[in-house]
Design a protein that fits this description.
It is a single chain. With 429 residues, this protein is α+β, with helices and mostly antiparallel strands. 24% of the residues lie in helices and 24% in strands. The protein has helices at 14-20, 79-94, 102-125, 177-185, 249-252, 257-263, 269-284, 315-320, 354-357, 409-418, and strands at 33-41, 47-56, 65-75, 132-133, 135-141, 144-150, 154-159, 163-166, 189-194, 200-207, 217-218, 231-237, 242-247, 290-298, 343-349, 387-388, 406-407. Helix 2 (79-94) runs antiparallel to helix 3 (102-125). It is globular. This is protein-serine/threonine phosphatase. InterPro entries: PP2C, PPM-type-like_dom_sf, PPM-type_phosphatase-like_dom.
C-alpha cells in the first residue's frame, strides 16, 4: 500500500526504468513547449472554460511559470460555472504555503486543490443560488500535469504510441458504485425518476434534487452529500511529451476516450480541438453544450507531438503501453498509466473525506506562517478556535484529534454536512 504523503514511487519498477533509460540517458530534460486550442458549440449556454498560460509561482520570476486549462459544465443555470471559472484558481493558490521551491510546490498542490474546490463551493453557496457545475481543472508545470475534477467533464492523456489514459474519474451515480454507497451512507437516496404508474426512467439520480452526479460545485438545493472534494491525479511525462484532451460531457456522451484521441491524431492542437467537437456532433448531434481543449506538451526541440515508434522496434515499450487502467478513484496507485519512461505517476487520491485529503502533514505544510489557519478558507484562527480535521473522525487512527490541520467553525460544519453527520445548513451549537 502506497503512503499518503503525496509522493509515491513504484519500487518494483526501478530495474525496468533503468533498462528503458538507456535510450534516454543522454537527453536533456529541458522545459517543454506547449501548443493548445479550444473549440465549442453551445446548446444551453452553460459550458465555460479557462485557459491561462504564464501563471507565476513566484511573482516576477518567468522561470516559475505554469499554465491552467479548465472546463466547467454548468447545470440549472450558469452562475456556478461562471463563479468557479473566476475564483477557483485564486482559491487554490492561496492554499499553497509561500516560499516553496518548485518540487515542494508541486507536492503541496494536490491538497491545495482540495481546499480550493471546497472553498469555492462554500463561498458560492453563500450567494444563495441553486445552480451547480462540474469542474475539470488541469495545471501543467513543465513536464508535470496535475488534474483535479468533480462531475463528469473529463481529461485524458495520450502518450507516444497512442496509449490513452484517463486522468480524471467520472462522478456519475449510474457508473460509480463507490459513489452511490457514499451518497446513501451520507443521507442521500439514489434512484431513477418515477413517473405515472410507478415506472422508473432515466439514469440514477440523487434525491432530493434529482442530480445525476455525486460531486459538483454548487447545487445547494440538492444536499451537501453531493460534495466538491475532487479526485486528483498528478503525473510526470517523459521528454517525449503527450497530448491532453479536456472536455465536457457533450464530448464524452458521444465519444469514448479512445475514439476522441483517434479522431484528432496527427493534427495540431488548434485543429485537433475542432475535430473532436466535429466528431462528437457527427456522432450524436448537438444535444448538449460541447467544449473541448487540446493541449500538446512538446519536447523543446520538436514542433509536433512525437509519432509512435515503428512496430518492429522497442518491443519492451510496446508491451508496457498495453497495460490498462483497472482500479477505481481510490486505487492508491495500484495501476500503471502506461510505460516507465513515458509517464511516471506521482500522486492519486479520490476520497471524499476531508480527514483523509487534508490530514497528512509534511514538511511543506509546516512552513505556513501562523500555527492556526483554516486549511480550507485560510482565515487565521485563535488557538481556541481551530477544530482539528481529525476530531471525531474514524479516519484519525494515525493522528491525534488535537493536532492539525485545523478548520474554522464554518468549514467544520460543512465537513460534517458532507459526511452526513449533520443536516446540510444546520450548525453545531
Amino acid at each position: 500500500m502506497a503512503s499518503r504523503n503525496g509522493r509515491r514511487h513504484h519500487q518494483g519498477l526501478v530495474p525496468l526504468a533503468a533498462l528503458l533509460s538507456r535510450e534516454t540517458k543522454n537527453e536533456k530534460m529541458e522545459k517543454p513547449t506547449m501548443q493548445y486550442g479550444c473549440a465549442a458549440q453551445s446548446k444551453k449556454g452553460e459550458d465555460y472554460f479557462l485557459i491561462k498560460t504564464e501563471c507565476l509561482r513566484v511573482p516576477g520570476n518567468p522561470s516559475s511559470a505554469f499554465s491552467v486549462f479548465a472546463v466547467f459544465d454548468g447545470h440549472n443555470g450558469n452562475a456556478a460555472a461562471i463563479y468557479t471559472r473566476e475564483n477557483l484558481l485564486n482559491h487554490v493558490m492561496t492554499a499553497i504555503p509561500g516560499g516553496l521551491g518548485r518540487e515542494d510546490w508541486l507536492q503541496a498542490l494536490p491538497r491545495a486543490l482540495v481546499a480550493g474546490f471546497v472553498k469555492t463551493d462554500k463561498e458560492f453557496q453563500r450567494r444563495g443560488e441553486t445552480s451547480g457545475t462540474t469542474a475539470t481543472f488541469v495545471i501543467v508545470d513543465g513536464w508535470t500535469v496535475t488534474a483535479a475534477c468533480v462531475g463528469d467533464s473529463r481529461c485524458i492523456l495520450v502518450t507516444p504510441g497512442s496509449a490513452v489514459s484517463n486522468l480524471t474519474v467520472d462522478h456519475r451515480l449510474e457508473d460509480n458504485a463507490e459513489e452511490r454507497e457514499r451518497v446513501t451512507a451520507s443521507g442521500g437516496e439514489v434512484g431513477r425518476l418515477v413517473i405515472f404508474g410507478g415506472i422508473e426512467i432515466g439514469p440514477l439520480r440523487c434525491w432530493p434534487g434529482g442530480l445525476c452526479l455525486s460531486r459538483s460545485i454548487g447545487d445547494m438545493d440538492v444536499g451537501e452529500f453531493i460534495v466538491p472534494v475532487p479526485h486528483v491525479k498528478q503525473v510526470k511525462l517523459s521528454y517525449l511529451g503527450g497530448r491532453l484532451i479536456i472536455a465536457s460531457d457533450g464530448i464524452w456522451d458521444a465519444l469514448s476516450s479512445d475514439t476522441a484521441a483517434r479522431s484528432c491524431h496527427g493534427l495540431p492542437a488548434h485543429l485537433a480541438a475542432k475535430q473532436v467537437v466535429k466528431e462528437a456532433l457527427r456522432t450524436r448531434g448537438l444535444k448538449d453544450d460541447t467544449t473541448c481543449i487540446v493541449v500538446d506538451v512538446i519536447p523543446p526541440n520538436g514542433s509536433n507531438p512525437p509519432s509512435p515508434p515503428p512496430k518492429n522496434q522497442n518491443k519492451l515499450r510496446e508491451l508496457l503501453l498495453k497495460i490498462k487502467s483497472r482500479s477505481s478513484s481510490r486505487s492508491k496507485l495500484s495501476k500503471k498509466l502506461s510505460s516507465v519512461g513515458v509517464v511516471e505517476e506521482l500522486f492519486e487520491e479520490g476520497s471524499a473525506m476531508l480527514a483523509e485529503r487534508l490530514g497528512t502533514h509534511d514538511s511543506t505544510a509546516q512552513s505556513r506562517p501562523g500555527l492556526f489557519t483554516c486549511e480550507v478558507c485560510q482565515v487565521d484562527l485563535a488557538p481556541s478556535e481551530g477544530i482539528s480535521v481529525h476530531a471525531g473522525s474514524i479516519f484519525s487512527t494515525s493522528s491525534k484529534p488535537w493536532q492539525g490541520p485545523f478548520l474554522c467553525g464554518d468549514c467544520r460544519n460543512k465537513k460534517d454536512a458532507m459526511e452526513g453527520k449533520r443536516p446540510s445548513g444546520i450548525k453545531a451549537a
